[in-house]
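Exam revision sheet. Question 4 asks you to relate a sequence to its structure. Input first:
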Amino acid sequence: MSQTYFIGVDIGTTSTKAIVFSTSGAIKGMGNRGYKIIVPKPTWAEQDPEAIFSAVIAAVRDAVDAAEVSKSAIAALGFSAATHSLIAVDAKNYPLTNAIIWADNRSINQTEQLKQQDIKHDLYLRTGSPIHPVSVVTKLMWMRETNRDVFEKAAKFISIKEYVFYQLFERYVIDYSIASATGLLNLKRLDWDEEALKLAGIRSEQLSELVSSTHVLRGMKTRHAEVMRIAPDTPVVIGANDGVLANLGVGAIAKGEVAITIGTSGAVRTVVDTPLTDEKERTFCYALTENHWVIGGPTNNGGIILRWFRDNFCMPEVETAKQLGVDPYDLMIEAAMEVSPGAEGLLCLPYLSGERAPHWNAKTRGLFFGVGLHHGRSHFIRAIMEGILFNVYSVNVALQELTGEIKEIRASGGFARSTQWRQLMADLFGIEVLMPEVYEGSGFGAAVLAMYSVGAIADLTDAQKLIRITYRHQPDPYLVEIYCDLFSIYERLYQNLENEFNAIADYQSQAIKRKVTS
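Answer key, structure tokens:
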């Protein structure tokens, strides 16, 4: 059998997904293996690197088994991974820490200190990475200051994707895309930034070898290849980060096209041909390839907020869903859609996990504003859905200032499965929303980049030829006007409460310290 299939592997926050695609973009088989987020202390978020590596192996195996394709039919694998993770490993390549992931806010003090320094703005302009606890730079500053023994023992500082590739190939390599999200990479030179390294207190040899996102590795360890049902010499494309690959995977790669992904977290992104940063420091700039750069903004608070509300306040919906054999989210969203736009005067600032773009303020906190006796669970669900989208829209406002008018939105991530949520996005943004057949855009993007890397397609723009649009949602002009007014209130709420967010976060920090020492 000729080699006609590509595997996209997406190492995400809650699970690793592997999808077998044909060269026409059709799905042949899928695998999905989950893992836990470990919260050893408030504001901390970690994961077990070995659990994630095991999930990668199992997900690929499940996808190949489901596809029922032979080893010789697999042309290449491409990898996508979440950004901003940090693992310290010793001289024997043994992890000294769990993976400190993007949702971790332990470096908030180091972040605030860095924000007060004169170099902050120039550092952002060179690296394209706003100063925030999500940044690997501030994580390293935290480790150096508070976990000195581990910091000095570490021979390498790597991300979860680097950990996976080391297990497969015994090589420490990092693609420009993952590297560009660390805050350590000089975007113009495509090399480690000397001043950023000095701030972090590390040397360039403690980081992995920089390679293009189209870099191909061969010669995987035989035992891992056998478990995954692939040949050891199968080309493995290192790939890029999940955000930029989501753009590629949904075909949002031309001017005026935006990809919006909402899963556990969320992001808004568009592609430009050279590195582009924002004088107001609202957006990131990450590499897709050396000739394709993705600018945008990530949000901490996507579907994780709806999950929090489900787990704490929606037991009736959960029990009913069990009896009916349906997803409880479907019942929650149906209930929310029975409430009028604006949730009858209830607004949600969904900052339960702090926030990244556009404010980059880890001290923000969640807020329900306008609560009245007439509000019930359905109102709160609607307000949460709208609040998540309001925050995503605020990133879109920043993008339009940098790149011009946005003409089209392509949706991906778990939320994109919901017809109601896609229509809500169209009404709130006032822009047509398109739903590609492959809603897991990052996995497909990884497969497309693999196709490009081994010459199966001539140009990344060919990705659009492989994508079938299954739904189109036109905005309702009446609702667009309503949401425009509500967004103004939403923005003023944040601006008026910014100092109070900082105050309550400081109070919480002190309360935790008092509890620990008592």
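Marking note for examiners. The CA atoms of residues 300 and 446 lie 23 Å apart.
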